[in-house]
Amino acid sequence: MSLEDRLYPLLKLYEAAPQALKSLAGRVYRAIPPGLRHGSAYPRFLDEAREVESWDAETIERYQVRALRESLIAASKAPFYARRFAESGVRPEKFESLEQLADYPLLTKQDLISQREQMLNPEFGPEHGLHITTGGSSGVPVGFDLHKGVSRPKEQAYLEAQWARRGYRVGDRVAVIRGGVTSSQASGGISFFDATRDWLILSSYHLTPERLPEYVEELNRFQPRHLHAYPSSALMLARGMEQAGLRLDFPLTSLLCGSEKLTAGSQCELEQFFGTRVFHWYGHSERVVLAAQGRESNMLHFWPTYGFVEFGEPDAEGNCEIIGTSFHNHVMPLIRYRTGDFCKPTLEAREFGWPAVEAVVGRDYEFLVSGTGRRISLTAINMHDRVFDGLLAVQFFQEQPGTVECRLQPGPHWQSARLEEIRAGLLAKLGDDFALSLREVGEVGKTPAGKHRWLVTTLKQ
Asked: What is the pLDDT of residues 352-365, one digit of tens each?
């Protein structure tokens, strides 16, 4: 297990400590070599991510067959998969070609909600799993387990390898606007320093015209090489600075934008304003597949050694659902997982010989509006703890600024006593200029096509 995973249970204590103590502890932690911090799996995955761009198709296929077989065998140990595989007549130990994967049943988010405990590999005890919950872009709370000592160092390695396509180097200074909570008060501080990584964390909840000069002042003081931001936050910053006639007094090496869709037009706007290249990628909390722009191309290429991607049947607009099978997570493998995300696959002008898509098709940027005019991205509200456990769906409803209703669709194991826990968790992110009400409902509203709506609002977005 990595040092990072061993220290993870102490994260809340670290975050609650005075800044001087955090800075001291962070500098000590940062001085530890990355291989020791992230564990022995980290250098292996980093080498793999750097080398795979030069692999031929035969080498990649051999790797994928082996990784898929290992994931399928690990999955077959769990009661849920054992039943499903037996019903489908498949035998993981006989898996020998990529084409055979189509014989295995698909996995849905509802399966994760209702069968998570039955999907855990009993050969690994609780000490090997790291439980994660996400409401994500769908508003459907999904819980799953990562593999300690494997999943997190793997993610770190692949992120660093793909960011390097835009000049990122390990140890570079980075400013971050990605949902970090700096204050639960509308008038609170906009930043804090994360000494463990030499990162400046800026609030994505306080980006208002009145406070924009504070952001520019903080950035000019810190002078990061890279800005790591939600696309919606980066656009709010750029447009606000342009309208106010503000500029950064240092050059950025890159703008790293993930977690939300980024249109070609928005990417061009950001690159023109900041005078640097944007790097965009697609991933999700379940860590099944990962795709990123190339060194030259803006198409998203799926890493063939991270996980195995398939595309569902195209709809009327040519969009296909992304279906993924995880590699390396043997605590809780996800086999042929329907992500609920859609894309437009392409075979044209691929920079690498990997599956590529023009774009991942997502909803437009969605915001809640506070009583003081702050715009809070729904992406930033995502909860990665167990606050939403026991719920089948979550939906926000807003008709006027500063007032929001959170509608909760209970699952079979829901406990109403947890309402105050949810209220506290949401208000810590929303802030004190919101009046929040919680309401349990039989079913949250959906689109005419039957899709879940994360936000229902009558306010102009």
From this structure: 989 999 888 866 67
251, pLDDT greater than 60: yes
Asked if residue 409 belongs to a domain, the reply is yes
Which residue range forms the structural domain that includes residue 448? 367-457
Residue with tokens 């005019």: 373
* N residues, the chain: 461
The b-or-e profile of 237-248 (16+ CB within 10 A means b, else e) is bbebbeeeebeb
- Residue 146 has phi, psi (to 5 degrees) of -90, 165
- DSSP-assigned letter for residue 288: S
Tokens at 172, concatenated = 């570079």
Residue 157 falls inside a structural domain: no
Q: At 375, which CATH number?
A: 3.30.300.30
Split into its structural domains, the chain has a count of: 1
Q: Which among 338, 327, 335 has a CA at the least distance from the CA of 70?
A: 327
Three-state secondary structure call for residue 63: helix
Radius of gyration, CA atoms only, the chain: 22
pLDDT tens, 272-282? 999 999 999 99
User: What single string gives the DSSP state of each residue in 98-118?
Assistant: GGGGGGSPPB-HHHHHHHGGG
Q: What element of type H or E holds 282?
A: strand 277-282
167 burial type by CB count under 10 A (0-12 exposed, 13-18 middle, 19+ buried): middle
Report the Cα 404 to chain-centroid distance in Å: 25
Residue 240 lies in a domain: no
- Is this prediction's pTM over 0.90? no
50-77 per-position pLDDT tens digit: 999 999 999 999 999 999 999 999 999 9
pLDDT at 139: 62
